[in-house]
Amino acid sequence: MMLSTEDEARVRRAIATPGQPADLYDHLQRRADRWSAAQGVATPADDGGAMDWRHVVWERLTDVAFIQRMDPSAERGEWLRNEVLAICDRPTDDWIGPFFRRRENPPQGMLETAHIGVALATALWLCPDLFDRTEQERIRVALRSHCHEPCRTALPHRSGNNWFMVLLAGFATTAVLLDDTEAIEASVEHYQNAHSLYQADSYDESLQYWNYASVHLAHTRDVLLAHDPRLADRLDVAAYTRVVPWAVHSHLAMKPTPGWGPGAYPRALNFGDSAALFRPSGDLLLHVASRSRASHPTEAGLARWLFDTTYADPALASVGGDTFGFFNNYRWRSLVLLSEAAEAIGPEDAGLSRTRGFAAGPVITRDDWRDDATVLGMQAGHKQLRTASHRHCDENSFMVIYRGERILADPGHCTYRLQADRASAATDSHSTWTFTTADGHPLEQTKPTTANSPSNRRTLLTDDGQVTAVRADAASAYGEPITRAERTWLAILPNIVLIIDRIEASEPVHVRSHFIANNRDNALQTNVASHTRLVFRRRDAALKLLQVASQSPEGPNVGDLQRGWTYMHDVYHPEPNQRGQSREGAGSRYTLTTARPTTSHLAVYSVLMDEESAIRAWHATGSFGDGIEISNGGSPLWRLQLTDDGAPTLTDVSSGRIRSY
Questions:
Q1: Is there a contact between 94 and 117 (Cβ–Cβ < 8 Å)?
Q2: Which residues of the chain have pLDDT under 50?
Q3: d(C-alpha 412, C-alpha 253), whole Å
């Protein structure tokens, strides 16, 4: 049902000659042979460490089932039949998930429940001849009792985030397999309701969870349309398709990553619960590239470009767990969708601007679209949230990537069952502020919710081709006594970022400004020239971080520099003590604290970047009254001045052009 005879014939023609489809098929077959070489869905030798069978079941059973369909093998077929029937015989509790999943009566489906159901249904659709009539009925009975009904029970309780889309995939897939007309109609309505969780250009949980939610929503759509093509008008693709430009803007480069072996890994901006090693699922990208090519041709072309870019090496070693979106791969659906996909359209050909702000909060700017471009990512104001899971306390934080090196970076996330994850999500693990009152009471951000107005309001976003200006006020993320927590970025890429911070409070507070540097692989070299002058070096890239001025109404307010540590995770894993989870200290925290508490604080920072050998020539000097000058090699380039109310004016020294913000 999920693979028509026409689909199968098209795939066979495509893989018959050398090229991209044949390469993808070849490596998919190698994966399938590896999965089926030993008893059990998960084995101790898995890449990335031990995996619970429920966390790999969808990808592995369906990899094997597709290859078995295309190239029947007695050994592979026996493995698939035995594993499917063995899972059917497991009790419902095993289908609910590991020990950390909540148990209810009646059972409520969990993520694992849906994945198991989708895996078994797909295996039966692809390889029905492996199972006699009695065994097929045995599978259907198991899917109804262990997946369909628990997912039905859970859906009303999970309407607010990615869980809803995952449970819907389990519910809808089994509804079609069981030919349950009422449940199929309910699935269509649930699919339409899921669209309300998406912003017009992004998804509020995180980039990674957009992918995880959307790959399940796309699967649900394909299953329902395979059952009844007349449903097409009720199953719109726009919600997740419109988010593709966010993924493109967030993509940094393909580059080798120490600790992961050979191959160039996909790197991305990773605000909130997103992996630093990230690419969208191949099946999702090609689903968009094929299903949206008429309605959204630009997004379809970008999705194909992102697939061709990040899946150029089909042999790229997986870290396991594609089912859960831990590290994404392509699967058998990619082979089916590839021949229908739009031609690739790169970011420049698509007319993507170098700067874009997204409703979920990120603003991303770069000097151009090459792999080693300078990229500034800011968590700079969001609209009212549709869903708030998986966000961090990172409002008005930022990241800087120069010459392909993440120098100022975000910790990302690890397994949610560790203190390390809570530390990684905390405010002081991001390049933003915490505060303390005069009597020492700490003030940190609270995570935003869907119930309240935006915790960070973007008030400025402009790009005139030379200067990008962004401003956002995150006072609501802290609450009283903070009444203003405003940061303005003026980016003159590739070498200069100026930051103006304005803090106001109803009672005196100390301002603690945190900057998080990346020492994930012990490649960071730091020179503390003074407590306001830091130089970071990573290989041949260097960055100067200078606090040029800091004052309150009473006068200069320059305090101490404190050093600490946080994390710098690569990729999520559901279990602790696994590859991808950072060690404490992989993120270096530098905190500048005001000398005295104040109700009003104004500070200017300069972030200057160049090759390691040239960084010494960059300087930022001056004061609020006289203006702050940025120079290179003794030649003044830009002059920043602040009006009486703190508004910045920027002068291009060479042309004399003045910009006011």
A1: no
A2: none
A3: 17
Strands (E), 223-324: 251-255, 265-268
Closest CA to 272 of 154, 399, 178: 399
Instruction: List the beta bridge partners of residue 640.
Output: 628, 650
C-alpha distances in Å from residue 109, one per residue of 93, 167, 314: 10, 7, 33
Dihedral angle sign, alpha carbons of residues 61, 64, 68, 72: negative
Q: Is 85 helix (H, G, I), strand (E, B) or coil?
A: helix
Q: Quick one: tokens of 634?
A: 């003794």
Q: Which amino acid is at 118?
A: V
Neighbours of 556 (CB within 10 A): 11
Angle (CA) 417-423-425 rounded to 5° is 90
Residue (of 590, 599, 491) closest to 536 by Cα position: 590
Locate 540 and state its tokens: 């041949």
End-to-end CA distance of the chain: 59
Q: pLDDT (tens digit, 9 = 90+) per residue, 23-64?
A: 999 999 999 999 999 899 986 555 555 688 999 999 999 999
Give the pairing type, strands 541-552 and 533-538: antiparallel
Specify whether the backbone of 453 is left (phi greater than 0), alpha (psi in -120 to 50) or beta.
beta
What pLDDT was estimated at residue 48?
52
Cβ(366)–Cβ(493) under 8 Å?
yes
Please state, in angstroms and rounded to a whole number, the distance separating the CA atoms of residues 97 and 92: 9
Residues near 345 by beta carbon (within 8 Å), at least 6 away in sequence:
298, 301, 302, 304, 305
d(CA 280, CA 248): 10
Our CA angle for 446, 447, 450, nearest 5°, is 125
d(CA 41, CA 43): 7
What's the pLDDT tens digit per position in 216-231? 999 999 999 999 999 9
Q: Is 578 left (phi over 0), alpha (psi -120 to 50) or beta?
A: beta
Which residue type occupies 603?
Answer: A
Q: Which residues, other chains included, contact 578 with Cβ-Cβ below 8 Å and sequence gap of 6+?
A: 48, 49, 50, 415
Burial of residue 656 (CB within 10 Å: 0-12, 13-18, 19+) is exposed
Pair of tokens at residue 486: 């405003």
Contact 207, 271 (CB under 8 A): yes
Q: Considering only CA atoms, which of 378, 434, 376, 483 is closest in space to residue 592?
A: 434
